[in-house]
Amino acid sequence: MLITKASEYAILSLIVLSNKQEPQDSETLSRELTIPKSFLAKILQSLAKEGILVSFRGANGGFALAKKTDEIDMLSVMSAVEGKTPAVFDCATSIADCPSNMATVCSIWPFLNKLQGKIDRFLSELTLADILE
C-alpha cells in the first residue's frame, strides 16, 4: 500500500506546520488533526531525524519545517515515516532482491518495476509547495 496512515498524517502535519509561524508541539498538532498523540510523535520524530522538520526543546518547543515548502518532496517524507521507499506492490525493485527468486521468469515484474519507477519519480518531484497550491 502506497499511502499509509503514517504517510497521510505526516503530510497533514506538514501542511499545518507550513501555515504556522511558531513551532508546534505534538499535543497541539494531535488535537488539531485528531491524530493519536503517541503515533503522531513518532511520525514527527522520524521527519526531524531526516531533516524535514526541526525540533525545539523547552516551554516554547515543538516542531517546525526545516526547509522551504518547495524543497520538501513527498518521496522523502513518505520514506522517512515508512522507514523505506513506499512501494505500490510487494514486488522487489531489482531482480536480485526477488523474494521468490523468480524475477527472471516473472512476466509482470518488468511492468511493476517500470510503474514503481514512475511513481518514485512523481513523488520525488511533488513538493509540499505543490500540495499547498
From TrEMBL:
InterPro entries: TR_Rrf2-type_CS, Tscrpt_reg_Rrf2, WH-like_DNA-bd_sf, WH_DNA-bd_sf. Gene3D superfamilies: Winged helix-like DNA-binding domain superfamily/Winged helix DNA-binding domain. One of its GO terms (molecular function) is DNA-binding transcription factor activity. GO terms for cellular component: cytosol. It comes from the Bacteria. This is Rrf2 family transcriptional regulator. It comes from Sulfurimonas lithotrophica.
